Amino acid sequence: MKTVRIVxxxxxxAVIRRYVGARVLKTLxxxxxxLKFLSFIEMNPSKDFLAxxxxxxxxxxxxxxxxxxxxxxxxxxxxxxxxxxxMIAKIREVLGPTIVQKAIxxxxxxxxxxxxxxxxxxxxxxxxxxxxxxxxxxxxEEYLREKLGIDFSHVNEQEILEKVLKYIEEYIDYPTIDNKxxxxxxxxxxxxxSKEHAIKRKFIELLSxxxxxxxxxxxxSKIEKFAEILVRNALLRK
Length: 238
Description:
Helix content: 55-70%
CATH topology of the largest domain: Alpha-Beta Plaits
C-alpha cells in the first residue's frame, strides 16, 4: 500500500476556541482510520511563508491578504499525517466544504458544518489532492526543519499520538457558543457595515467565553486581534 504525507492543521479559530480544536481532533481520530501522526506542533507560521509558499496559488484573489493574515495570526497546531492515498479524500469528506455556509447547508454533520464560523473561517486545513499533499508536505518539512529543527525521518508516533489525546482530554469540556451566533453576527455586519464596532465587541464577548486565559492577555489581546479578522471576513467583497 502506497502512503502519502498529508498536511493538516488547526487554524487559529479552532485553537482559540478550545472546545472546537478538541472536537476536531477527536472527530479525525474516530472517523478516519489508519492515520499516523508525525507531528503535533503549536506554532505561528510566518506571513512570508504562507504568502509565498503555502497559499501561493491564491495570490491575486480578493481574499488573499485576509487569508494570510488569518492564518498568520496563530497559533495553529500543525499535524503531518501519514496515511494511504485514499485517506486524502476521506479527510476532506470529514472536514467538509471550504465555505462554511455551504458546509452548513450541504454537509451539516462535517467538521466545518458543525464548527465553522463564517465564510473562510473554517476551522482547519487539509491537503485536498495527491498533488497538493506532495507539494505541501515538502514545503512544510523544509520550513519546519529550517525554523524549528524538526526532522520528520525520526519521529516517535506513539508519543505524538499521546500528545494529541492529552490535548483532547484537556479541552473537550471547555464551554462553547452555538456557531449560529457567529454566523448571524457576520451576516448582520455584511448587511450593515456601519455596525462594525458594535459587532466586533460582540465577537470579543463570545470568544472570551470559549477560550483560555492566555488568549485574553495583552493589549490588544489575541481575542481582540481575532475579532478583527472576523470583521474583515464578513466585509470581504469580490
